[in-house]
Amino acid sequence: MKPELFRMLKSAAEADKSKALLTLEIMSENAAGIGDHSTADFWNNANEALELLACTDDRLAALSKYFPSEDLSNQSTFF
After folding, report:
1. C-beta of residue 10 within 8 angstroms of C-beta of residue 63
2. Where are the domains of the chain?
3. Which pLDDT does position 53 carry in this prediction?
4. 78 three-state secondary structure
C-alpha cells in the first residue's frame, strides 16, 4: 500500500475515534446540553458513538495487522 493511502486511512480512523470519544464524554458530562432530545435519542446517540468507537478500533487494528510495514509513526515521504 502506498504510504499516502495508509496515512489517509489511519488519520480518518483516528479522527473518527476522537469524534466518538468526545461524543461519549459530552453525553456523559453534559447531558443537559442535549436539549429537546428524548431519552431514546440519548441512548441511540450513545450506542452510535460506541459503535463508531469499536469500528475505529477494528479499522486501526486491521491496518496494523495487514500493513505493518506501512506504519512508520506517521513519517512523511515528502521530505
Report:
1. yes
2. 14-29+38-69
3. 97
4. coil
Are the CB atoms for 27 and 46 separated by under 8 Å? yes
What span, in angstroms and rounded, lies between the C-alpha atoms of 10 and 15? 9
Which residue in this structure is represented by grid cell 461519549?
24
Under DSSP, is residue 21 helix (H, G, I), strand (E, B) or coil?
helix
Per-residue pLDDT reduced to its tens digit, 18-76: 999 999 998 888 766 555 667 788 888 899 999 999 999 999 999 999 999 887 655 55
Return the sign of the alpha-carbon dihedral for residues 7, 19, 24, 58. Answer: negative
Q: Give ∠ CA 3-51-46 in degrees, rounded to 5.
A: 130
